[in-house]
Amino acid sequence: MLVLATIAWAAGDCKQRPRLAEIGLTSVGLDEPLVRVAQETLDSLGRGSALRLVLLPVPSGEVMTEVSRAAYFVARSRVIGVTGPTSSQAAMETASIYADGAVPHIITTGTNRRLAALGPWTFALAPDDSMEAAFIASFVRSRLPTGRLVMVQATDLYGWGIGDATASALERQGRALVAHALRLERPDLRVLFTSGYAEQSVAFGDDLAADSSFLPKPFTGPVLARRVRELLDRPRRT
Question: Which of 8, 31, 63, 162 is the most exposed place for a label (fewest CB within 10 A)?
């Protein structure tokens, strides 16, 4: 947070600096421990300076979309930079608002490769999907010397982005994702996924959903047997 505040402070030359400057926070409130520590650090470093940086969250108690949050920060004359949002989709939806308002937009965790093309007012700090995928593939190559792998991903923009990039990186290594590889060999294969994550958080892929099922952990032997039987008895795709 201190690094982000320093970046926003440096970018403050794009606006006339007031004695009090604000850094917008789109995703956290002032009660967050990290934000409190960051504000205390900023106050300590800026003691005696003519300019004081204040971390500014969105108004409490209000339900706001990412677009309305962006509009709120841009409308405030003291805001010299904004950190967040945390998702790539929200960042892409609001980038033009911050650019039109000449407010630096610092994205802390978004990884979509398109973030780099949003213009000079958008700063993506996290490695993009292809870089993260390359790291995952390198880890797999050094630690998991098996030819076939199973991958579970989140069913959101981040999950699909990192999942697709990782699958491509693994394929370039000659590694096969089990469900996809076996489906090529056995088109009528039934797939039963099991995980400690909630069902809505697990991505099956459109080509597997009709002939697959999900069994959350924990489960007993009879429950597993019943689910396998149900999956095998399911009508085949035509």
Answer: 63
Q: Which helix (H) or strand (E) holds 21?
A: strand 20-25
What residue ranges of the chain have pLDDT lower than 50? 1-5, 7-9, 11-18, 201, 204-208
From the number of C-beta atoms within 10 Å of its C-beta (0-12, 13-18, 19+), residue 95 rates as buried
∠ CA(136), CA(140), CA(141), 5° rounding?
115
Q: What is the DSSP letter of 216?
A: E
Does 87 lie in the same domain as 137? no
Take residue 119 and report the two structure tokens written for it: 């213009």
Does 214 share its domain with 174? Answer: yes
Token look-up 């000659």 returns 174
| pLDDT for 31 | 62
At residue 190, φ and ψ (nearest 5 deg) are -100, 140
Structure tokens at 157: 């923009």
Q: How many structural domains is the chain composed of?
A: 2
Q: Which DSSP symbol is given to 192?
A: E
End-to-end Cα, the chain, rounded Å? 54
pLDDT (0 to 100) of residue 98: 93
Q: What's the pLDDT at 97?
A: 93
Q: How far, in Å, are 11, 38, 77, 96, 211 from residue 7 at the CA level?
A: 6, 14, 18, 20, 50
10 lies in the same domain as 113:
yes
Q: Of how many residues is the chain composed?
A: 238
What does the DSSP assignment read for 167-185?
A: HHHHHHTT-EEHHHHHHHH
